[in-house]
Design goal:
The structure is a homodimer of 325-residue chains. By secondary structure, chain A is α+β, with helices and mostly antiparallel strands. The first copy, chain A, has helices spanning 2-6, 15-21, 80-92, 114-129, 136-151, 159-164, 199-204, 212-231, 234-240, 247-250, 257-266, 288-304; strands at residues 22-32, 41-57, 62-66, 97-104, 167-173, 176-181, 187-193, 209-211, 271-274, 281-285, 309-315, 322-323. In chain A, strands 1, 2, 3, 4, 5, 6 and 12 form a 7-stranded mixed beta sheet that branches. In chain A, strands 9-10-7-11 form a 4-stranded antiparallel beta sheet, with helices on both faces. Chain A is globular, with a radius of gyration of 20 Å. Strand 8 of chain A pairs antiparallel with strand 8 (209-211) of chain B.
């Protein structure tokens, strides 16, 4: 009996065990920084996202297959999903193997947490197949290792919302302290101009020292944004969505940034800034109707200068990564 | 009839008008910065505080009298209460005169908002006597002018909680945007060593540029503290009460700072840092019993090295400046 329980392949006809053996996972795009909250705040979107299938195998190793058009690296030590998953298996001291197939993928380098979605998908899927040894919050530390493989820095401001949904605050890294922040109904518009900005490059151009006056302004806005999210105060959220430290530097990497931002605000957005390290630009709006109007305005701005772009409108995804149908 | 209404002195027998003619005001001490929230956060205490009496006069000017032991400047242009009140009268285009008597006073230079209490007392008292033309929040801009007279900088992180009570966030100065932050029951311990640190001096030693890594750590903590106050999460409040930017510089102005802080934490405080620009040190505790234990520990720390000190234990004052009995 005991051996039968361990050998899942004997139970392929038993629905519960089929569910536990192979699942499809949807992992959402995320917007990090959220204007004022550089390196600490992020939120999840309903779309776009990554889709993977993940399955237990008996090979004692992670086997990867890519059905996306992006030519993802399939050597486990170079693939963010595998790196994140391996760090989780190491923590469990597990030799369990997995087959992972990348079915569809957020375009890499878009600035909406493409590597974070891949990292979150792998650890979430494996955690489900292994009977949930970890909470979603605990999975953040493993998904961060995927981020480290992708950009050299184990940041959590994308993987935390990808795993936990909603708005998240990474209060501290040492020790890791991730706080969910509630939010009212609010809609994000994200426009992705088809230019590539590498996370590592966009970090290099940041100044290592910032004026204390600007830092005070920034943490006033971070506190205001958190208070606005807690109190459903859309005006306060809007007043707080200002980045006086990172946006002024990174904006130069995104052609038309200030024109697009102004167009979004003119169309009724509460606020608008760079998504993560760019080049995507996000805006937040109170209603879906406004978010759609903002989408049109942002898209028009890029179209006018002939920059190909994709635009997404989504409510805040409160659930995070999930088992897909 | 109309003239009679204007001439209040004809109505001294009519209780409502007596109340409107002369009042006693209690204005609370405040703790600015609250560890991570340099220049943006503050909270009010029940004690100590300033007491003034304020009365309408027919002289068309502000007349000051001092019953405190501190030898306060009584020339209206040098007295913070008068400066703040005058800025309010200017906004009202009012020539109304006031007699103000300083009855008791927080010790100047203590770092618990002595000048803010005086500024708040004057504008609050006059606003009451004039039939409340302004809200408490609107009074902040006038009280700030008293702060400017005191320290050269029109900061609001003490006057906002003095006027509005509770925890307050000064999200922005241009335009002024003050946000009340709710808080669970929480007790403050403040120890004031009898050494003087001038606000202007303690600002001069701050670095004008700060490492972005430290700034990120700081705004992670600011966001965490606000989230902890909203969710009554004492643990999160405690984890967030860290100042990695200002405290390390200003601590050198306060003998025994790190020993006192450690003693407070060992006694059970959630967190401990410098109150405003010092030299007072504050700690926050979950219960009054712990706050008293913390008070003893902090006081012992100063006593051990022969530094005279006063200690106060108080819940957060939710009301702010008020008409006293």
């Amino acid at each position: 009996m005991q051996r039968d329980f361990i050998n899942f392949t004997d139970f392929t006809d038993f629905t519960n065990f089929i569910n536990l053996k192979k699942i499809k996972v949807f992992s959402p795009a995320t917007v990090a920084n959220v204007a004022c909250g550089f390196d600490v705040l992020g939120f999840a979107l309903n779309n776009p996202g990554d889709e993977i299938s993940i399955e237990l195998n008996d090979l004692g190793k992670i086997v990867l297959a890519d059905e996306t058009p992006y030519g993802l690296p399939l050597a486990p030590e170079k693939n963010v999903t595998a790196v994140a998953l391996q760090s989780m298996l190491d923590a469990l001291k597990s030799k369990q193997g997995f087959n992972i197939t990348f079915l569809s993928k957020i375009m890499p380098g878009s600035g909406v947490g493409s590597s974070a979605a891949s990292s979150a998908a792998g650890v979430f899927g494996a955690n489900e197949l292994l009977g949930q040894p970890f909470t979603r919050k605990e999975l953040v530390q493993f998904a961060m290792q995927g981020e480290k493989a992708a950009s050299g820095s184990a940041h959590a401001d994308n993987v935390a919302p990808a795993l936990m949904g909603g708005f998240t605050l990474v209060r501290s890294y040492t020790p890791l302290d991730v706080i969910p922040i509630p939010s009212p109904q609010i809609f994000a518009t994200v426009v992705h101009p088809q230019i590539e900005v590498r996370t590592s490059d966009s970090r290099k151009i940041l100044r290592q020292e910032v004026p204390i006056k600007k830092a005070v302004e920034q943490w006033g806005n971070v506190a205001g944004l958190v208070a606005g999210l807690f109190t459903n105060d859309y005006d306060l959220i809007g007043r707080s969505l200002h980045d006086v430290i990172v946006e002024p530097v990174r904006a130069m990497l995104i052609p038309e940034f200030y024109a697009i931002k102004q167009a979004a605000l003119d169309a009724g957005a509460l606020g608008c800034s760079i998504s993560g390290s760019g080049p995507s630009i996000f805006a937040l709006s109170k209603t879906e109707k406004t978010a759609q109007k903002v989408a049109q305005a942002m898209q028009d701005g890029f179209n006018k200068v002939g920059i190909e772009n994709h635009v997404f409108v989504s409510p805040i995804n409160k659930e995070g990564v999930r088992i897909a149908e």
